[in-house]
Amino acid sequence: MRSAVLVVMVGLISLGIANATIPDEDLCTVLPCDTFSGMVTSPDHMGGVLNPPDATEFTVTAVNGQGGVIPDAYVEILFGTPGNHEFCPTAVLTGTTDAGGQLVMNIGAGGCTTGASAVRVRVNNVVIRTWQNVKSADYDGAGPDGTVGLGDFVFFAGQYNSGAAGCTDFFNDGVTNLGDFVFFAACYAHACQ
Predict the structure, then answer these.
(1) What is the pLDDT of residues 110-161, one digit of tens each?
(2) Where do the domains of the chain lie, and which CATH numbers do they carry?
(3) Cα pseudo-dihedral 132, 90, 110, 131, rounded to 10
C-alpha cells in the first residue's frame, strides 16, 4: 500500500513539474505585438553596425497555466509564407527565456505578408500566437531589397493618409497614418549587413 501511495505521489510531482513548462497561450504575452495583432520587422544594421531599430523590438513572456513564468523556455518565430521576406544574415528566430520567463527579440528582415498564419510564435513547441500580419519598412510594393531606402519611402508616401490598410499600415488600424510614419522613420536607412 505504501509503495502505491509513493508511486502516486511521484506521478503527481512529475505531472506538476511537466505542467510548469507548458505555456498557456492566454497567459503568455508578446508585447507590443499583441496590441496590434501582428509583427513588424526591419533590416538591423545602421552604418554597418548591428543596431536594430527600437521600434521593432518585442518581448515574449512565457507563462504556464498556474500563472508562473517559465524560465529557459524555447521560443521560435515561424514565418508562414516562404519568399515574402528577406532575412538579414544576422536574423535570429529562436531563443530561450531568462529567469523571469522573458525573451527580448528583434528580427532583422524586410518584406510584407498579410494572410492566414503569416507568423506564429511557439514556446516549448506550443503555438501561443498566430497573426495574419508581418510587415517591414523594407518594402517598396514589389518586395524587400535588404535596405530601407528611397524606393520604400516613395511607396510609403503613396499610401500615406490614402485609407490604405496594406503593407504600410504597420499597426493594423485600417489606415497608413502618423503612427506608421514614425515607425517607418525609425527604420529608415537600416540595412542588412
Answers:
(1) 999 988 889 999 999 999 999 999 999 999 999 999 999 999 999 999 999 8
(2) 2-136 (2.60.40)
(3) 10
Q: Is the pTM of this model over 0.70?
A: yes
Dist. CA 86–CA 59, nearest whole Å: 22
- What is the rounded radius of gyration, in angstroms, for the C-alpha atoms of the chain? 20
What percent helix, strand, coil does the chain show, rounded to 5? 25, 35, 45
6, 8, 13, 15: CA torsion to nearest 10? 160
Look at residue 7 in the predicted model and tell me its pLDDT.
Answer: 43
Question: Which three cell numbers mark 113?
Answer: 505578408
**Helix 178-187 and helix 150-159, axial crossing angle in degrees, nearest 10:** 180
What pLDDT is stored for residue 3 in this prediction? 58
* CA separation for the pair 128, 75 (Å, rounded): 10
Distances in whole angstroms, Cα of residue 55 to Cα of each of 27, 145, 181, 182, 185: 24, 20, 12, 9, 10
Q: Whose CA is closest to 187, among 115, 143, 138, 150? A: 138
Place of cell 523571469: 100
